[in-house]
Design brief:
The chain is α+β, with helices and mostly antiparallel strands and about 550 residues long. The protein has 3 domains: about 150 residues, Periplasmic binding protein-like II (D-Maltodextrin-Binding Protein, domain 2); about 110 residues, Dipeptide-binding Protein, Domain 1 (Dipeptide-binding Protein, domain 1, Alpha-Beta Complex), CATH 3.90.76; about 170 residues, Dipeptide-binding Protein, Domain 3 (Dipeptide-binding Protein, domain 3), CATH 3.10.105. It has an 8-stranded mixed beta sheet with strand order 1-13-20-12-2-11-10-9. β7 and β8 form a beta hairpin. α9 runs antiparallel to α12, α14 packs antiparallel against α15 and α15 runs antiparallel to α16. The longest helix is centred in the C-terminal third of the chain and has 18 residues.
Length: about 550
């Protein structure tokens, strides 16, 4: 599950098996990279969706990574299982279309009479599954649920939601939200599960059971919850009275399952058990790439919104030194990481925001990325610079840097070994501390658990296709993903200005200035960008291939062909 960070760190990071044949990916500059390596056997693609479905399906089964869904409460957990399943049942006020375009959904439109006021114009004639009309009161109730402590909503701690002053029903079909300061990332945030709408009466009636198999879920989406045993599967059925008839579900019964044994997954796809699945395990890349049962898609860097990184959590010793962090980052051979951990699928990451975030002014963001990448792509030069930085840091550089590694995970161990060896080559002393899954999770929620640890491995994503939202939560003081309490007035000023800037070119210019400063300090050390990986069975179409899977009812478009 997501562990207390807006950027949705996976609780079992890198739960994959490492072996196989690898190839190098080159420099990874976003302007020129051709995508994932061919060693996967998959079909590299720039598609954001497969061909449209032309037939209905009576039933289908979909594979989900990397664990069972923990709750159907939209705000309870925000991680891969929940973000891939719940939006098909519980719709949000906005949604993302393939290509990462945010559009109105339960909110038909919005207006902003001033920078501190947002008026949502709700869509009329929307009904919950039980036939009850959706009202502005339901919307207000749903949004405010993010701030109920017992709900443990991660959204309450995001920069966008923290900036809310009031949420009020100002008419039968209008909701008005006021802010403390301007924030242009808020509307895209309403396409996440933080903006999902549930029926107030049914939710309150369920009480503490809401979100569990014993509770009552009432939403508006194209699929209704039919059965959920809390362990091996969750079944949804087509909502016959869905308000959006043009986008009604094409599958009558859809079952989500989550077996994780690598051999079992590949063989089940080959046998036609699964209609599809996202975020495939590297150990399955080769067999699925050769499968005659369907097609394995590997997306390009231009669509990537996932990053493997190390979060700086230590505030003393070697890791607190800026030269040391820069030297450590420069020492790491990211091509080697991709070869030895990810079956050659991925690209080196030299900033936190990959190409999938560049939903506007791509030229500005790509040029800024490539400028930073230039310091890394000549490995010999990067190594020499790292040696100079270690020498400049002095005695502090000799102190140990403790990297937490989740136990029982070969890929996490392999990644940590590459980091450790790379660091040693420039005179840095990285020590590995193996932690259990429970201990790993606590690192994101309990500061005391981070005592004696300097770096934490993470597989990270943010759903808002705007680098501003990502950097807000990493670099602003007290932000949810600012784990070492970094506070740079120059960065704060730039990000604050960007949050009030509606001119996209001007916003991009401010964000890349902030990015340059953030990458100098390195509150996180980026490692690699993960492309989207999707398997689609023969005879199945309408499958979303980019990260908009996480921000809307993607399953409604899936059907036969």
């Amino acid at each position: 599950m997501s562990i207390g960070t807006r950027t949705r760190t996976a609780a079992i990071a890198f739960a994959l098996a490492a072996s196989g044949t690898f190839v190098s990916l080159g420099t990874g500059a976003l302007a020129t990279s051709a995508g994932a390596a061919s060693s996967s056997g998959g079909s590299n693609t720039t598609l954001v969706q497969t061909a449209p479905a032309t037939k209905d399906l009576a039933a289908a089964t979909w594979w989900i990574w990397y664990r069972p869904i923990a709750s159907v409460d939209p705000v309870k957990y925000n991680d891969y299982p929940e973000d891939l399943i719940i939006p098909n049942m519980c719709e949000s006020l906005f949604k993302e279309l393939p290509g990462q375009k945010t559009v109105g959904n339960l909110a038909a439109s919005y207006t902003q009479p001033n920078p501190l006021t947002l008026v949502l114009n709700l869509r009329k004639n929307v009904k919950f599954w039980d036939g009850t009309p959706m009202t502005s009161a339901d919307v207000v109730y749903s949004l405010k649920r993010n701030f109920v402590t017992a709900n443990a909503s991660i959204y309450a701690y995001t920069t966008a939601f923290q900036n809310i002053k009031t949420i009020t029903a100002t008419g039968p079909d209008t909701v008005t939200i006021t802010f403390k300061t301007p924030n242009v990332t808020f509307v895209p945030e309403l396409a996440s599960l933080g903006g999902a709408v549930v029926e107030q009466a049914a939710t309150e009636k369920s009480g503490a059971n809401f979100g569990t198999p014993q509770g009552k879920l009432e939403c508006t989406g194209p699929f209704e919850l039919s059965a959920w045993n809390g362990s091996s599967s969750l079944v949804v059925t087509k909502n016959p009275n869905y308000w959006n008839t043009a986008d009604a579900a094409k599958i009558k019964k859809l079952t989500f399952v989550w077996p994780q044994d690598p051999g079992q997954i590949a063989s089940a796809f080959e046998a036609g058990t699964f209609a599809g699945g996202f975020d495939l395990q590297p150990s399955d890349y080769l067999p699925l790439g050769k499968s005659s049962a369907g097609k394995f898609y590997v997306g390009p860097p231009s669509q990537s919104m996932e990053i493997q990184a190390m979060i700086v959590v230590g505030t003393k010793g070697a890791i607190a030194n800026e030269d040391v962090r820069q030297a450590l980052s420069l020492s790491i051979n990211r091509d080697l990481l991709i070869k030895t951990v990810d079956f050659g699928v991925g690209t080196p990451a030299y900033t936190f925001a990959g190409g999938g975030y560049f939903s506007y002014d791509k030229g500005t963001y790509t040029a800024a990325y490539n400028k930073i990448a230039a310091a890394y792509t000549n490995q010999a030069k990067a190594h020499a610079t790292a040696l100079k930085l270690v020498k400049a840091a002095g005695a502090v550089a000799k102190l140990p840097i403790v990297l937490s590694v989740i136990g029982g995970d070969p890929d996490a161990a392999n990644q940590a070994a590459v980091v450790q060896q790379s660091a040693a080559a420039v005179g840095l002393n990285v020590k590995l501390k193996v932690v259990t899954a429970a201990e790993y999770g606590a690192l994101f929620s309990d500061p005391a658990s981070r005592k004696g640890i300097d770096l934490v491995q993470t597989l990270n994503y943010d759903q808002d296709p705007d680098p501003l939202a990502l950097y807000d939560d990493i670099a602003l003081p007290n932000a949810i993903s600012n784990f070492d309490s970094y506070d740079n007035p120059a960065i704060v000023k730039l990000l604050t200005q960007a949050n009030g800037e509606t001119d996209l070119a001007k916003r991009a210019a401010l964000v890349v200035q902030a990015q340059a400063l953030i990458m100098k300090y390195l509150p996180w050390i980026p490692l690699t960008f993960n492309p989207g990986t999707t398997f689609v069975a023969n005879g199945v179409c309408g499958v979303t291939l980019d990260f908009s899977q996480m921000m809307g009812p993607w399953a409604a478009s899936v059907g036969g062909c």
